[in-house]
Amino acid sequence: MKQGLMRGLAAFTASLCAVSLVAASYAPTRSAFINARLGTVSYRLEETGETAGDSYYFESEFDSLSDLLAAKTQLAEQIASEGTVLLKNNGALPLDASKEPVTLWGHNSVFTARGGMIGSTAAAGEGQEDVGLMDAMFAKGFQLNEQMIGLLTSDEAFAYTRQTFFPGAGLVPSFEATWEQPAVYLVGEIPSSMYTDEVLESADDTAAVCVITRDSSEAADYEPTMFNGTEGDSFERPLALSQYEKDMIDLAKQHSTKVIVLINADNPLELEELKNDKDIDAIVWAGEPGVYGFLGVADVLSGAANPSGHLPDTYAVNSASAPAMQNFGLFVYSNNSNDGSASGDVAQLTTDNKGDWYVVETEGIYQGYKYYETRYEDEILGQGNAAASDGSSGDGAWSYANEVSYPFGYGASYTTFEQKLDSVDVKVGEIGSAKVTVKNTGDVAGKSVAELYVQTPYTEGGLEKASVQLVGFAKTSELEPGASETVTIEIDPALFASYDETVKKTDGSIGAWVLEAGDYYFAIGNGVHNALNNILAKKTGSTDKLISVNEDEQISADNAILWNLATGDFDTYSVNVMNAIQNADINKLIPGTAEYTTRADWSKGWKTVESITPTADMMVGLTNSTYSLSENGDGVTWGADNGLMMVNMMQTDENGNFSGVLDFDDPTWDQLVQQITLDEAIHFIEWAADDIENIDSVLLPRTYMNDGPLGFAYDQVAGYGTRWTSSDSGNPFYVDSKSDEAKYSMATMPTEPVVAATWNIDLIRREAELYAEDALHAKETICIAPGANLHRTPYCARNHEYYSEDPVLTSLMATNFCEAASAKGMVTQVKHFAFNHQELNRSGISTFMTEQAARENELRCFQKVMSTNATGTIMTAFNRIGTTYVGAYSGVLEQIARNEWGYKGGYVTDMVNGSMYMNWLDTVYGGGGTMLGSAANWQGTKLGTMEDAKDEIAKDTAFQQQMQYTLKTWLYSIAKSNAMNGISNTTKIVKVTPWWLGAIYAAAGVTAVLTALFLFLGYKAGRKAS
Amino acid sequence: MKAKKSVGFFVLAAAAVVSVISIILYGSAMNKATSAYGFMIAAAVVACAALVLGAVSGNKLANWGGALAAVLMMAGLGWSLTVMVDAIGYVISGLYQFSLLQSYITFAVCGGIAWLLFLVSSFMSVVKE
Asked: Are strands A703-707 and A691-692 parallel, antiparallel or unpaired?
């Protein structure tokens, strides 16, 4: 009996001991996470030198965190005011806040969208002010109708709140495989019957601000076929106004002195009806302006700020009318893992392959305005069958007048400006310039944006060309009435070169950037359509047939300048260039699958690619069997004793501040990398996550990397104090976890479309500087921002994390952000490279496109920021290019980015989500860098972890060379960052056992002793019994 | 000589059956650790061996089968959790939906019952002492 008791107790304590041992083995791999929450450390930097001096290479411009917070709030307000776009105004705006009482209309006016859901949620921290539209208008002195607010905030109204998962979420995000189109969106508007007579009467003699809101979200998309989940309400499309919204606006028209519609959405809505409604006095686009941005929007409404924003996207009459919408959404291979079947030699896909879905971008280069404006020119010139009914939003022939409400780049002001294109100076192979003189001809001070566009020569049936594209832009300073300013806009011909996939160069390679001989028209305008009209006026000598969709458009042939290129150029921008993504063109894999949009005949390109049966070659990528380890080469050097440290790679100025790092090609980098052991290398690559693993052999301290575009994400870094521990108290940027500001959120800034709408490079550079200040004060190094993908369609609900439908606007915004941030020691991580054009089934979706379209649109967004190495790191996307996972697609990652552009920074995958297609073998071999997520995903799989495969890896020289290259690119980037702060040549890493790890060890020890004791007692009892 | 089958024998037998079921269920967990498989299979094998030893030879060593199996089972459960930590975190942060964890939770509950039965059997005798 006693023996059984002792045996049972021994089993119990031994079980606890087993758990403790597992924890003792596993917990250190999560030490950064645990330490951050418990305020402990696992190592500390110890200065061993006698004259260490100041080793802070990046310093703050602020005396306190409070000063930084105040600067961020002020900047957010300014970005939002300059990013607010005035679309229509009959004089109703600005409002006189002190004299004109205002009624907020629409339930969403008290539940505004300030950012997206999940990855880029705009969040206020504990004790931090959170400013919605209503709060902002009160703060700016508006007298708001309290009775209406009482109704909109009532429990009865709350029942209509956009709330799929939580309040403010009208979309339903999904991280799992989806076999149905997203079906429901909650508009969240209340029925008109809810407005009581008393409330309606209270709105009489007040100005109405009617708010129309649509949400943004990671892992979700809009679909034209959605229905409105708000009970009793309906819409034709989710980006069109719902019936309740129309009813609400009708009531506002009946009970108000003036009606202003405020658009609170980043996805372009259908506004034609409002635009044409004479009872609507003004339309203002505010986007999703972050936690403080509505203060800036309120300034625009009151006239404290003069709107100077311009649209970053085309606002079409029918949001689904572009050819890209023909192939957006849910398309599955015939051998998919759900209800598909094997065919011939092609096996059925499995869920592990995560390869069931595809999208074919049949629109080719004609994305966004490049479609609408190019077809418009052909309509005017009577070519390319432009008037065909295919793609028409109406019943008959296609006409631009019926298709676009507000063109890309359009924006009005409370004043008027006169712009004159003075000159253009274009030099192939060099940066030229255009000069534009802007004069304020109105009676209110304001800023103006000079937008420069170009039309390149097009031959019918030749290389596809957009009729107009953005070259550059400049924003004036605030001009007083009557004042003028001449601004200079850079002209880089690389930005409007076309990619010809068929050119065979002298070295035998195929594919080149070309500037064809002929006439190039440079033009300015208030938006792309105005610029194109100026070009057409110049080209045709007449304005008779030209169509204007904005009443304030001024067409002038004088604002277009002709430049002729006598001889075509195929070489200047084609160094190292060759076709690299031909297998992303579905027609080159399965001829005749897609009908691409073509300028030669606009009736083509409207077919949906309903079904694809992959070929055996395509299945290689779809089944993730691209690479395998093998025994090759003579090995590489690991663990060398070269006596180098990361800090040795940094160069400083006479004040001890950062001035640069050794050149990437300096052999010292290779010596540094060779010091790293294979174990360290494996750990660094397969455990890249929120915390970047420390590498003791080169004295790389553990540092941190977090989302995202609105500032460091609050759900990942819950305030400035999160990363600090008491042992950091000597750091000049230390934030005490007990201080009020320790839990303040950094994710407060406006979304990217709002930032893009400012068209103000100075503002985005300042924003980046303040992100870098956040990094210093929050002990962060890498910010996973900005997003630089293209708005391929208006329906991607993640467009709020990307700037625009235009690659040049995107590129200039992203590049300037990254340059300014890196100058202050923050490493940027531009995402999602590349072709993340829809969130629906984004994990593993095959994305097909022509190489010309890929290079001229999406890749151009990333080209400058990577070719100038303004960004230190790049996050790859979830999707596939063709059928190969983008994070392992060497054609883009290595050939285009490294060989052609000269990118030297690091790559990291997006979150490794347990899917076999995002595996370390393909990723490292394909040049995709490190793995964001845990090695745990590969434990127990056929592939196993890198650690499991260490012996095989050690035999594969080519793989190890890729590992070392990956390490070099990361170290090269981190050496330029604030991660080096506090480290000198005499610093050493000292390992520390945090109390929680000590407690685990103690638990293991105590339970082991108890087990031994019970075993002994049991043994004694057994002896006694026998 | 055949040993008389005690209550402990049947509890251990039940534990062995439940442990085998949990091993099968583990196959459908989102992430799987090889070491977890190893420990759990070892637990089931030890339990079966103890049952055979007890039933066939009446060797008192069989009484330690449940205790050893309990420890192995717990080690297996512990290792299985280590590869699910990320997924659990993703569910908490809203990145994953809860349904992704359901198969693991089912396994873990079953495995927990197996451990409990092993533990109870270790207090009892498979072969009379």
From this structure: antiparallel
Chain A / chain B CB contacts < 8 angstroms = 110
The alpha-carbon gap from A722 to the nearest alpha carbon of chain B, in Å, equals 17
| pLDDT value of position B1 | 44
Residues in chain B: 129
**Structure-token match 């300028």, residue found:** A599
pLDDT band for position B3 (cuts 50, 70, 90): very low
Q: What is the pLDDT of residue A51?
A: 52
Residues of B in contact with A123 (CB under 8 A): none
pLDDT of residue A135 exceeding 70: yes
> A596: which 2 tokens?
């691409």
Ramachandran class of A933: left when φ > 0, alpha when ψ lies in -120 to 50, beta otherwise: left
- Which is nearest to A815 in space by CA: A775, A781, A777, A788? A788
A649-692 pLDDT per residue, tens: 999 998 889 999 999 999 999 999 999 999 999 999 998 887 88
Q: How far is CA A858 from the centre of its chain?
A: 12
- Comparing CA positions, the residue from A697, A695, A691, A685 lying closest to residue A949 is A685
Which whole number is the average pLDDT over A173-185?
Answer: 87
Distances (CA, A) of A556 to A260, A290, A485, A873, B20: 31, 38, 20, 44, 82
B85 in contact with chain A, both atoms CB, cutoff 8 A: yes
Residue A882: pLDDT over 70: yes
Share of chain A above pLDDT 70, in %: 99
Q: What is the DSSP string of A241-278?
A: PPHHHHHHHHHHHHSEEEEEEEEE-SSPP--HHHHH-T
* Weakest mean pLDDT among A273-277, A399-403, A660-664, A724-728: A724-728
Q: How many CB atoms lie within 10 A of CB B4?
A: 10
Q: How far apart are CA A979 and CA A782, in angstroms?
A: 9
Spatial separation of the C-alpha atoms in residues A643 and A668, rounded to whole Å: 11
Distances from the Cα of B84 to the Cαs of A64, A176, A239, in angstroms? 41, 17, 39
Q: Find, in chain A, the residue whose alpha carbon is nearest to that of B31.
A: A937
Question: CA of A354, closest CA in chain B: separation in Å?
Answer: 14
> pTM, whole model, 2 decimals?
0.92
Is B1 among the domain residues?
no
Residue A997: left if φ>0, alpha if ψ -120 to 50, beta else—which one? Answer: alpha
pLDDT band at A299 (very low <50, low <70, confident <90, very high): very high
A32 vs A637, more confident: A637
H-helix or E-strand spanning residue A970: helix A957-974
**B89-93 long-range contacts, Cβ below 8 Å, gap at least 24?**
B90/A175, B90/A911, B93/A715
Nearest CB neighbour to A176, from listed B35, B97, B122? B97
CA-closest candidate to residue A672, choices A975, A979, A959, A991: A975
Has residue B2 been placed in a domain?
Answer: no
For A2, name the nearest residue in chain B, comparing CA atoms only: B123
Judge whether B99 lies within some domain: yes
Domain count, chain B: 1
> Which chain B residues touch A707 with a CB distance below 8 Å?
none
Residues A158, A171: Cα–Cα separation, whole Å: 17
> For chain A, what is the mean pLDDT?
95
Give A430-453 pLDDT, tens digit per residue: 999 999 999 999 999 999 999 999
- The domain in which residue B76 lies consists of 7-122
CA distance A844 to A877: 9
- Cβ of A21 within 8 Å of Cβ of B95? The answer is no
| Residue A899 backbone dihedrals phi, psi, to 5 degrees | -75, -40
Asked whether residue B127 is domain-assigned, the answer is: no
Contact A8 B71 (CB under 8 A): no
Q: Does B75 touch chain A (CB under 8 A)?
A: yes
Residue type, A609: V
Helix, strand, coil percent content, chain B, rounded in steps of 5: 80, 0, 20
